[in-house]
Amino acid sequence: MRRLVSFMHVSLDGFVAGPNGEMDWIKVDDEIFDYAGDRTSASDMALYGRVTYELMESYWPTAADKPNASKHDLEHSAWYKQVDKVILSKSMKGQQLANTMIISDEVEHRVKALKQQGEKEIIIFGSPRATHSLMYYGLIDEFWLFVNPVLVGKGIPLFKDIQQLTRLKLVTNKAFSSGVVCLHYQKI
Questions:
Q1: What pTM was computed for the model?
Q2: Which residues are registered as beta bridge partners of 88?
Q3: Is beta strand 156-157 parallel, antiparallel or unpaired with respect to 4-11?
């Protein structure tokens, strides 16, 4: 059975974005990209909310074509183009996109069915509102939390409307030179 893995940058005070969706406080560099790239290669499906999907779609399909494309741009662009995508979105219902499934209703049932298919992981990048929905149904198996050394004060929280006690086990942790710490938790 596939595992559903959430990759999320979070502030020290528990926010994934500011009140207006600001993410300019997130620290990302080659060291973090390399670390995250190792995890990305373990997945063959990406799950996004609509907003994050639109951000990804506006950059990654052509990122490798730019003359100054970085190693990360080349690698992630290649992965993004070939990976199956799932979008949780009511507003995109009925749209047909290549290599992409849109889930607008029956989220719990349909995501459980996806977890039964295939062997590699399903990875969620960001997408806080989609992540909240998946947490509500207890569908996330692992969290890779990139804790940024900043206090945001208010905004979109990482955890919201948790319906049941969820016990987690710390599997690994990694401190980066930027001050970001990645905490990898599995649901037990």
A1: 0.91
A2: 49, 103
A3: unpaired
